[in-house]
């Protein structure tokens, strides 16, 4: 009997992260019905997150065990309320007229805004669901798929602008740049129950705007605490939705919560969760505190050095610093595990070097990155342990056990680190030989797709024999030479150390170094390695775990509890997922390199690419890629200097995205949080003591006694780390 997990999303940016998260779940569940993939996809228990029901026609419908709490208008052109849709239809049928007002005898002018249009992707996806694909011929099916892929590309402003530049030679890109996903419903593929979307009053303006209220206390003290009982009714409605989800579970494992908790949504989420804690005591709650890239840094000057600071800037800075402390104090009490998250604020991070298309200014990009990290970090709680051709998943856990591993070590605070895509794992020749067993050919194996490409070349040559002209000869000559996987040893980037993990928790480097401010000794860690690869293709779970243990042994030898999870199922990327990856990333996540021995010999300039053929799109059936190596590579080639080179059009077909990637994540409880909490405490003291900060707290109805309680709570958190250090528990 599976243990179900309920997912809650509070906030406009959280809605974006949640939409990407559920697209990833939907894509992975779809792989369970694909030929060759089902044995790998079935190692994940999808009933943990999805509920199923049988319709009137006998068909099964799957919906997320999730609730969205966002502002009215955040859903864009999608209506989740039947009464709202009926009212809009009645108004349209009446021709825009209004009912007479008995107390007014003058004229009435009606100003009605045009309804928000649905995204092209959502509309096309709905049309595809109505098609009978069994009756379509191959040409029509390919055309319909191309239309959907083009609509998906329009969701990404960067991709839409690049496509427009290719079509027009650089002209007419302004309209394309304006395209993109504005609402979370523009790209969410899963079926959402209307009862699970709670619309809060407010003026929605975008996923990056804190339009519910400016700061934590604005909602808690004003919107929710105002007279008339409106705020209490909103909280009760939210609690009822959570109860409905939780009581529908046969065996509730706990909650995972995505919150913009340093905005007004944080105050609302705290009011709802305080009731949930009382209704479901003992159920673990993992809370991801979502932050905009570069926001809440707390150290930068608001106007720059030497520049005058306006009153508005001082108030905004005080509001941010006070919100940070209030969110940490209140949410860390309500959550079993509190994980602050923010995507990198720079386009090319040294820790994420293979994501050249990543744009931190686009919520569509940053939310996708965070969703992939949350999905992979929590994957151990959804694994079944079923055996696959590459071995069974290792390190299967449950939500309670995962939290108990991390919570005692760092006062309920944890950091999340990500390696996406994960480079190839180091492997010796014996491991490679085991992986090259011809009886094991995963669908994402390089040698399997090489055979498919070879068949395509042979078919082309058969259609145009040499005696009938030189077309067949030219086609065969234009194809790269096809070789077995042994010949590409040393051709992909290697995971040489765990310092390649990028920190997604602002202020936490992840370094296991006691010389860091506040100490950096790691106390408890949970690693999840999914879809691991070597130069020979997908790695078995035994090989992946052995390689991970080898990297862990290089870290400082301290008393650190470590949980390791390895599963052969990679991160399957759905069609709406933005193409963030560099051209050096192949169809299935290999990071292709050129081998240069520096001597101009046979290995000099050797380039290994993935030449794609077949359908385009993210993970489409029928898409194949071939791996070619110019020149023979051997075990000695692994010691050659490796330089990343763009694969270019030969790596993936034009417009074709990456179908799947390997991912490595780490949840870390570290004493580095002691310095992090001290920073929050210092900013709280500075903000609460300033005139601008005191005015903000007064507007939030936070009295001096309440401010003292926040200071005491922060001091208590710091004391927990100091007590553990003095006791040498870790």
UniProtKB/TrEMBL annotation:
Segments forming domain DML1/Misato tubulin: 242-383
Keyword Mitochondrion: yes
Extent of the signal sequence: none
GO CC, one annotated term: mitochondrion
Pfam families hit by this protein: Misat_Tub_SegII, Tubulin_3
GO biological process, one term: mitochondrion organization
Keywords from the named record: Mitochondrion
Annotated family: Belongs to the misato family.
Protein name: Misato Segment II tubulin-like domain-containing protein
